[in-house]
Amino acid sequence: MLASYFNVTDLERSELLPSGRQAVFDNRVGWAGTYLKKAGLVDRPARGKYQLTSLGRKVLEQAPPAIDNHYLSQFETFRQFIGENDDSSVPSASPDSGQSPQDTLDAAYQKINAALADDILSEIMKQSPAFFERLVVKLLRNMGYGGSLEDSGEVVGQSGDEGIDGIIREDKLGFSSIYIQAKRWERDKAIGRPEIQKFVGALAGQGASKGLFITTAQFTKEAHQYVRKQHTTKVVLVDGQMLAKLMIEYNLGVSIETVYEIKRIDSDYFSEDSE
Question: What is 132-186 written as a DSSP string?
Answer without folding.
Answer: HHHHHHHHHHHTTTTTT-TTSEEEPPSSS-TT--EEEESSTT-SSEEEEEEE---
